[in-house]
Amino acid sequence: MSSKKTYRPRWAFAVTVTMCALAAALVWPMSAQAQMRLDASHQWPGGQGDVRDEMVQIIANRAEEADVGLQVRVYPGASLYQPREQWPALSRGRLAITALPLAYVGGRVPEVNLTLMPGLVRNHDHARRINESPFMERLEEIMLEHGVKVLAHTWLAGGFGSTKQCILHPDDVDGINIRAAGAAFEQMLAEAGASIASMPSSDIYTGLQTGVLDSANTSSASFVSFRLYEQLECVTPPGDYALWFMYQPILVSTRIWDRLDEEQQAVLLEAGQEAEEFAYHAAIEADKRFAEVYEEHGRQVVYMTEDDFNAWREIAERSSYANFVRDVEGGQELLDMALEVE
Fold first, then answer.
1. Does pLDDT of 25 surpass 60?
2. In the CATH hierarchy, which top-level class contains the domain 37-339?
3. Which of 54, 56, 167, 210 sits CB 3.0–4.6 Å from 172 for a disulfide?
4. Which residues are the signal sequence here (predicted)?
5. Where do the structural domains in the chain lie, given as residue ranges?
6. What is the 3-state secondary structure (H, E, C) of the chain?
């Protein structure tokens, strides 16, 4: 049985190669766009109005609308990384974008503990001035040294709530059991005579209900979302003065950032500015909502005066501030830079 070998002329092979090359050229831009996907992670519920989720969604939406070969996929509710896993993933380039309470990183980068320091920020306008200050420039330099860049600044405020007397002055916490948000606040409140019970904000309701807590210190949003008005009698929302401000920026990995072209970087920077402006107004509305909800439920709502604020600052200076200066190399200089912002 004979077999025949089929021969193809060289020109046919050349035509085939050319057609394949043309097809690849048509498909490549779409493939390149699909490959430039940035994962964004945060710990809050998605699609339920949380300001931090909405900030990240703004960035994702603007990236898609710009049509520059950039897709941001958002993973809310700690579905991609646990909250404290996000910073190392970001720093090493395994995660592209996150919304993160920066104080979570204080064990790795002690300088950032200043971003959850009692009385460092007085109100939302003061927070804006801090964002534009040499202090923030230095903080951003420190973050860059760890491979992280800021896309949007965000400060969220909080206050006090009590099942007993209203909390305005340090004397009001002497002898009470309180949950504080962050180590620096625990140090200040302990110095004022309070007994500290450490727990996540999700456990405050049960702590108040069972009598483990007399009062709590947390964010404006948590006072509402956890329905603490069912347990509390008096609250101190942020007003002209507030002790509790927490820096929760939108961050991007510099390893990822450096792989983007100038057009893609410009889109993310512009989206970050939009997200920052949105968060400023949303944070103020969250404070107003905090007060309104408690008034609707017949709870007493009080506000700190400048004298109250200054009394707390004196307590913080000899506790939280002193500990920061003692424990952090260059801490005094960094603290002074923050306090210089009027």
1. no
2. alpha beta
3. 167
4. 1-34
5. 37-339
6. CCCCCCCCCHHHHHHHHHHHHHHHHHHHHHHHHHHCEEEEECCCCCCCCCHHHHHHHHHHHHHHHHCCCCEEEEECCCCCCCHHHHHHHHHCCCCCEEECCHHHHCCCCHHHHHHHCCCCCCCHHHHHHHHCCHHHHHHHHHHHHCCEEEEECCEEEEEEEECCCCCCCHHHHCCCEEECCCHHHHHHHHHCCCEECCCCHHHHHHHHHHCCCCEEEEEHHHHHHCCHHHCCCEEECCCCCCCEEEECCEEEEHHHHCCCCHHHHHHHHHHHHHHHHHHHHHHHHHHHHHHHHHHHCCCEECCCCHHHHHHHHHHHHHHHHHHHHHHCCCHHHHHHHHHCCC
Compute the distance between CA of residue 283 and CA of residue 275 in angstroms, rounded to an integer: 12
pLDDT in tens, 55-74: 999 999 999 999 999 999 99
Token readout for 251 is 């961050």
In the beta sheet, which residues pair with residue 50? none
Taking the whole predicted model, whether its pTM rises above 0.85 is answered as: no
Structure tokens at 118: 């009692």
Nearest to 72 by CA among 84, 93, 58: 58
Number of alpha carbons in the 13 Å side-chain half-sphere of residue 114: 27
